[in-house]
Amino acid sequence: MRKSTTLALAFAALAGAVGTTAYAENNASARMREGMMARLDKAMSDSDGAITFDQFSDAMDARLRKLVADNGGKLTVAQLADALEKARFERMARRIIARYDTKGDGTLTSDDITGREKKIFAMLDKNNDGKIEKSELPKGGRFGHHRQSDDEGDMQ
Fold first, then answer.
1. Torsion of CA 64, 65, 71, 73, to 10 degrees
2. How far, rounded to the nearest angstrom, does the alpha carbon of residue 18 sit from its chain's CA centroid?
3. Tens digit of each residue's pLDDT (9 = 90 or more) over 59-68
């Protein structure tokens, strides 16, 4: 392959990676702004449409202030990263439990997992012969995007 073609492909790959990262960061920023606006709207509705600085401050970063207080008044990058990672994984765990938990008790059992697997298997076994053939699998191999509700396709 010519050097110019190799450089062009490398540049295209780098641009794609940067674009994907920028998109993810913009998406996360948008979610943060939406959360902030929701907290402000709630604070204002709780206070007849106007809030003081103290109410504003409480609505904005109560969790962050608590993290700082819980860590002796200073928060390092590592401590904040650990807290953010823990919060992210707890959200993921809650979603998984909610999808699988058949009794609604907030726990996950082997029976819950088996029940969900049976439900997905039955949905994929389009001709009800007790087997899943390749032709019955969703196009592109992606669950959740082919005749399934959102609830049934997120665990891939």
1. 140
2. 21
3. 887 788 889 9
